[in-house]
Amino acid sequence: MNNIKEYLQRTINIILLFLFIWIIVALCIANRIDYACKINWKISNIGLIIASLLIIYLYCKKVKERAFQRINMNRLVLIATIVLFFLEVYICYNIFFETGWDSGAYIIPAARALLGKLDVTSMNEAYFKTYPNNLFLVHIYYALLRINEKLGVFTGAYQLMVIIVFNCAISSMSCWLTYIIARKYASIKYSLLGYILAVALLGVSPWNVICYSDAIALFFPIFIMYIYTEDRINIYVRNFIILVAGYLGYCIKPQAAIVIIAIIIAELLKITHKYEKSFWIKEGAVILCSVTLIAVIAGGLKNLYNTEGFEQDKNRQFGLTHFFMMGLNPEYRGVWSGEDVEISANCKTAEQRRETNLEVSKKRLNNYGITGYAKFLTKKMLTNYNNGTYAWGAEGSFYAIVPDNNSRMSHFLKNIYYNDGKYYGIYSQVVQLLWVMVLAGVAISSILGLKRKPCQSNIQLILQLCIIGITLFELLFEARARYLYLYVPVYILLFVLNGDYLEGYLKKKSTKK
Fold this sequence. Notes:
mainly alpha
């Protein structure tokens, strides 16, 4: 059984290594390829990769663990996280705007309609019958707006700041959880590096100001990972929380379920006979209770939606086959396509839509051929991975409503975060460098995984499976860099959890010389 587990762990590591060789090579030739949402970085990715490797090497060699041992780093990071939260709120207030696309066209108007007890029939017909998964998000926003209405904190043009404060709380907490998880498996030195990267890529990210699922869904993968690694929680309670949290995350953004799949696979690879019969009886009871609660929540939400006027129609819903078809669109290079939306919308039944989607998908695959499809997937890989801002500003009508704020700090911060800002080029290049460094770190981790014995802990295996899962998901379905956003802490963790091993490996190499 151990041999089978080790073989499967090696196989998963090899798959991850293959994907990251693909990613790194694609990044190196990105300027020569035409792909969706392309950005021509002033500093080439080859230069950024070299700089990243140099930074990683110097951090391993020059930064000493003993420098942090006299400091209560856990307390310091907690204080820094509280400060970070207020900093995030301050930044978001000064760069505040209401975005367009799905958020401004349907999600926020629906939440405001519920707040004002208005009719939602037209919005349901136009959008939510097709994309009912966003109804849970609407109700989260409605609850926040209602609380704000009672308290009267944010009014007028800044009403949505209550949602953004919630986003900031999630972002800062996600940074803190990244550090806490890293600290369980890595030295202070590399845990702190993980925290710094999380703060730079998530904590001060402008995505906190966007009222959409990406900002809220960020919490679920890292929270579930934290619960999974928290041994102080009873194992049965732990599994119950994981399953329920996974379902709630799925209701907000389907990609959030990937972490649950990863945990299930990792658990199945454990030696089953080490558990007694009583364990499986209790575990079965936990699963039964979880499924029952999930069914109650699902039923309750459905009844709530129907009562409010959000009646659902299975024949109008777009399923996975639609997004698979859209992910194959040659003209739009695998991103959102109005042409494909029209194809699916013209189908009268769910079965007809599924058959049409698969038929169009089959034709497109045949037209590509094996070589053509590989080239197409490489372009999608760049759409997903070659953007450290996670395609900030790429959605339609992005800066839809920008309220007047003429303060000097607002002007300065807008110059950093707005796409047409004076300093945006510097900001985007810095986060691109940090993102490339994380990707290079994951690639190094996958190489080191071939040199070391498979880990007894499941944590690294789960991290690997999450990254493989989200990468394959975005390759097969609609591509978007922001869809990786909720798994950024996972990428960071896989990088820093191998930091101590990398440092030891470098020391061993230098000693031999």
